[in-house]
Amino acid sequence: MKALQDSLLTTIKSCLCPPGDGVYTVNTAKERKQQLQQSIYQQTERIDLAWLKSLETLPQSNNAVMLGIASDCGGGILRGANWGPLFLRATLHEQSPELSYFDIGDVRVNPHLLHDKYLNELTISKCRDAFYQDNNAKYPVSPLSITELVADEFYATYPDKGLFGIGGDHSISYPLTKAYLKAKLQQDKRVAIIHFDAHTDLLVDRLGIDLCFGSWCTHILKYLHSPTHLIQIGIRSSGKPKAHWESKFGVTQHWAKEVQELGVEYVIGTILKQLQDEKIDELYVSFDIDAIDSSFVSATGTPEPDGLTPTEAMDILKALAEKYPITGADMMEIAPFTDTSGEGIKSSQQTLAVAAELSAFLLTKMSEN
């Protein structure tokens, strides 16, 4: 165990950075970063040392471990979700100061990259030199690749802890859920991914790229015991009907219209029966904030009308958490500087408030397991 802990710590120190520093800037949002780091470490100077010191307590920490991935390179409509980790953290500290979780920091994001498999060796070497001051370093350089490495080592070292990922665009959920599912398969756990979203994210690829915000779900199906264990809630923006997605991919969907027409209690009952029938042990919740109706959340890359209300989403989460442990989760697609409502900062604050309330619930339940 000590060897695994030491290896993970070395990887974290190389591939991550203090919370809030995941967006590579000099002055942009500097005051907000300092406010967040003051809340976490009670100081604003030499944050790198305070962060490194905090990592020593990870073995004894809370089971809920937060990881920020400030990348929107896998998005494709309105960008800006790279600011989600900083702003959501700050809102959580303001809105729910009593929350208990361990913040492991941010992935060091090169904003021009997505996954190492799309890069040639020369680019990887040059980026390693920039990131690690060593072009022969063993570490990856792209946010999806770094996230998967860190998550794989994390679950190998701490199988009883869970990562709460903050994005970032929804491509980030690919390495988070892949690492989680591989770990749970090794533990012989049957798990379901509960995916809240306005979109199916079931493209095979988009413009030739197979790992992006619109396709990540397709590529995690092989790590589930059954594709039906991907349960999607809130779908409403799709060029094809529900029957197409369920028949082609074998997933389970509950469109937003069903929640509105049949009632949230009916949908909850249907989901719980499926989980029971399929002998599910644990749940991972992947939450794209655009699952919520755009009248509540418009600071996101693809706001959609006719979605879930925050109350409906919370009712579903509470009902699931009463019956099943939530052992992993993420919150994606919060773009604080993006606004389609015309209400500016008010829109951003409302979106962040909704996302923080849902995130606080998920973190609380993860910490209890």
Automatic annotation (TrEMBL):
<keyword id="KW-0378">Hydrolase</keyword>
<keyword id="KW-0479">Metal-binding</keyword>
<protein>
    <submittedName>
        <fullName>Arginase family protein</fullName>
    </submittedName>
</protein>
<dbReference type="InterPro" id="IPR006035">
    <property type="entry name" value="Ureohydrolase"/>
</dbReference>
<dbReference type="InterPro" id="IPR023696">
    <property type="entry name" value="Ureohydrolase_dom_sf"/>
</dbReference>
<comment type="similarity">
    <text>Belongs to the arginase family.</text>
</comment>
<dbReference type="Pfam" id="PF00491">
    <property type="entry name" value="Arginase"/>
</dbReference>
